[in-house]
Amino acid sequence: MLGKYSDKEIARKFGCTVYKIRAARLERAIAPIDRTVFNWTQKRLKMLGRFSDGELARRWGVTANTVGNRRRKLGIEPAEPSTDTKRHPWTEEQLKWLGVQPDAQIAKTLGLSHATVRQKRQCLGIASSRKPSRPSSSKWTKQALSLLGKLPDTQVAKQLGCSRNVVQDKRRSLGIPSQEEERWKKIWTPAVIARLGKEPDGKIAADIGIARAAVGLFRARRNIPAFRSKSDS
Fold first, then answer.
1. HEC readout, the chain
2. How far apart are CA 147 and CA 171, in angstroms?
3. pLDDT digits (tens, 9 = 90+) for 66-112
4. 175 strand-pairing partners
5. Over the stretch 44-72, which tens digit does the pLDDT of each residue have?
6. In this predicted model, what pLDDT tens digit does every residue of 144-196 receive, in sequence order?
7. Residue 7: partners with Cβ closer than 8 Å, 6 or more residues away
8. How far apart are CA 142 and CA 184, in angstroms?
């Protein structure tokens, strides 16, 4: 595995430190994994869209952009919100904490993941409580607001000198879809969705220009059985 997977990923798998893995690799004169040519195994490809880009990036020791770019290239939807978000019975009192207390603090108090709390807050259109990275109201000029949804959140954040989450919160509070959300609306039209299960995934994938696996995943998430020809019956 040395040199074929990131030191961080190997350390995570075997429950040891990154330093120990790096030392073992250097002792054998094995070069680290080339991040520009990431080893996209079938196992990793199957995880795209099932976990968030950020979570997979941390597991594999690469950037979230590397994961996201590959996922989008294959036409795979981003991961759905954590099931914890749906399971946890949010009380009125707990909802009042969102945007007032840091997400990490709420997560620790409720025994949830940081991502789960952040997703709940964002779904409600509540801005983050992280004041140091929040742009002043003067930064949300008409010109700045006109960039929301037209440029990636990361790019807008860089221009405004704030975090991506701050831009994302502002965009969602205004009901403005992201570029990726707009792209999926154009791909998954009602007419295309109506074809799921009635035609082979491969044919639909070829028609709309995305990977066959992406069509299968989209269909499976909606509990639509795969197409079966009469000869298969």
1. CECCECHHHHHHHHCCCHHHHHHHHHHCCCCCCCHHHCCCCHHHHHHECCECHHHHHHHHCCCHHHHHHHHHHCCCCCCCCCHHHHHCCCCHHHHHHECCECHHHHHHHHCCCHHHHHHHHHHCCCCCCCHHHCCCHHHCCHHHHHHECCECHHHHHHHHCCCHHHHHHHHHHCCCCCHHHHHHHHHCCHHHHHHECCECHHHHHHHHCCCHHHHHHHHHHCCCCCCCCHHHC
2. 10
3. 888 888 778 787 775 554 445 678 888 888 888 888 888 888 888 77
4. none
5. 888 888 887 877 887 887 777 788 888 87
6. 888 888 888 888 888 888 888 888 888 888 888 887 777 778 888 999 999 99
7. 18, 21, 22, 25, 32, 61
8. 27
Residue 119 token pair: 């997703």
pTM of the predicted model as reported, rounded to 2 decimal places: 0.38
Q: In whole angstroms, give the CA distance from residue 223 to residue 209.
A: 22
Q: What does the block give as tokens for 206?
A: 């070829």
Radius of gyration of the chain (CA): 21
